[in-house]
Design goal:
The chain is mainly alpha-helical and 94 residues long. 83% of the residues lie in helices and 0% in strands.
Length: 94
């Protein structure tokens, strides 16, 4: 196993979030792309926060792969929450 594999998994949290947000967006303007990348960054930081909370509550996880996987899961939870709230706001404004 490569020593940098957990780092690549953690980086994939941002990349997966960015890809999901860019693919689901109907607006292809530069402003929309930059906003989606900014939202992906916030989701990445949210994933780091969720992973940190989960590691603290569990008493500490020694495996770097498990820690990196928690970051990816946390980022995907943030993306899912953003998408659900975005749909709800659009539906209530119409």
């Amino acid at each position: 196993m490569s020593d940098s594999l957990p780092s690549w998994i953690t980086l994939s949290a941002f990349l997966i979030s960015a890809i999901i947000l860019l693919v689901r967006s109907t607006d292809r303007s530069l402003h929309a792309i930059i906003m989606n990348l900014l939202n992906a960054t916030f989701c990445f930081f949210g994933g780091l926060l969720i992973a940190g909370i989960a590691m603290k509550l569990s008493g500490g996880i020694d495996s770097p792969l498990a820690n990196s996987s928690l970051v990816v899961v946390g980022a995907l939870l943030c993306v899912g929450g953003k998408e659900l709230l975005g749909k709800r706001r659009k539906a209530s404004s119409q």
